[in-house]
Amino acid sequence: MNKTHAREQNRDSSLSPETPASAHGAQMAKYFTMNQPPHVALDSVVSVVRPQLAITRLIARSGIPERTASIPPEKAYVVSLHLNHANSGEWELWTDGKYTKTGTWPVGGVAMCNLESNTTIRNPGPIDWIHYHVPRATLDSVSDDAGVPRAKRLYCVYGTPDPTLHHLTQTILPYLNSPEMFSQLFMDSFTMMICSHLVGRYGQAPAVQHFKGGLATWQSRRVVELFHEHLDGDVKLETLAHECGLSVSHFARSFRKSFGTSAHRYLILKRVELAKALLSGTNKTLVEIAAQIGFSDQAALTRTFANVVGATPAKWRREHVRSRNFVEIPKPQFHQSHE
Questions:
Q1: To which CATH superfamily is domain 213-339 assigned?
Q2: CATH 2.60.120.10 residue ranges in the chain?
Q3: Is 263:255 a contact under the CB 8 Å cutoff?
Q4: Pick from 2, 15, 243, 270: most CB atoms within 10 A?
Q5: How confident is the model at residue 7 (pLDDT cuts 50, 70, 90)?
């Protein structure tokens, strides 16, 4: 029997022993395999979990030949995206006793499962799915923050292609085995993108009005200070917005207007700038540089640096090192936005 490999990072410890575990990570795997024959097991279960959003990847080459166990009701959705093709009729669904048999399910096809309903499934073919566990409170918060009506429900025809969600998912797939890569700032930004897309496309929410303003000088200065204090990205978007006296969506739009990119991308670019300064101006090792500018390790620095610059830190240092004695340089300052 294949043994399920599960890896989960969960910072939400608010559940009491009497509260059923939410449908993500190892608990999702349990619901899927509870009613299966002994020879059936999931090949891989990998998840990154935060209170506002949980991401779980399930892989089972043997499929799920029997109907799954019911998932305890909760005020949340599971948004499923297929990473493999499913033939017509392979995927079966029961919602509050109502039976549905799907047609062909393409790669990048999605489904919306309201966990307040009693939902079970059967899929005898191979599966490779990403499940986004999205609490209703998160969807409502994003809608309120954007000033749009709350979606009464998310709905789509099962297997509907969603290139946007598929693309966003592809950007995080390489890092699901390294949950430490998902900083608080990244998860806040990613959650807002995912939920804004879900509400806008599947909740029929009206479009957010175009915002023309940017951050005031004092707001830009304060954000830069906070970034300097949290180079590892462990600062919430909500915190940045609060320090500026703005809602999260208002702050995100204002920040992009002032700095020309998102808060998460801005921090990445500034960390790369600091890395360049340390590479060319000191004799610090890559391990030391990674630790100083907030990367979890040298490998994380190398991946990010190469993605932004197009060369590894070591190669860039060889090509740009100055022909002088290395000296320690003062702590670099972030550039603020131009009004």
A1: Homeodomain-like (1.10.10.60)
A2: 6-202
A3: yes
A4: 270
A5: very low
pLDDT tens readout for residues 118-153: 888 888 888 899 999 999 999 999 888 887 788 888
Of the candidates 80, 93, 68, the residue with the CA atom closest to the CA atom of residue 24: 80
CA geometry: angle at 280 spanning 276 and 285, to 5°? Answer: 85
Average pLDDT over residues 51-75: 90
Q: Is 86 exposed, middle or buried (0-12, 13-18, 19+ CB in 10 A)?
A: buried
Residues of the chain with CATH 1.10.10.60: 213-339
> 3-state DSSP call for residue 64?
strand
Cβ contact 86:163 at 8 Å: no
C-beta contacts of 101-107 below 8 A and 24+ residues apart: 102/158, 102/159, 103/159, 104/159, 105/158, 105/159, 106/82, 106/159, 106/161, 107/82, 107/83, 107/166
Among 49, 244, 53, 10, smallest CA distance to 141 is for 53
Q: Which CATH code of 3.40.190.10, 1.25.10.10, 2.60.120.10, 3.40.50.1110 fits the domain covering 6-202?
A: 2.60.120.10
Partnered with residue 82 across adjacent β-strands are 129
Segment 260-285, tens digit of pLDDT: 999 999 999 988 988 988 888 888 89
Per-residue pLDDT reduced to its tens digit, 156-187: 878 888 999 999 999 999 888 888 888 888 99
Q: What is the largest CA-CA distance in the chain?
A: 75
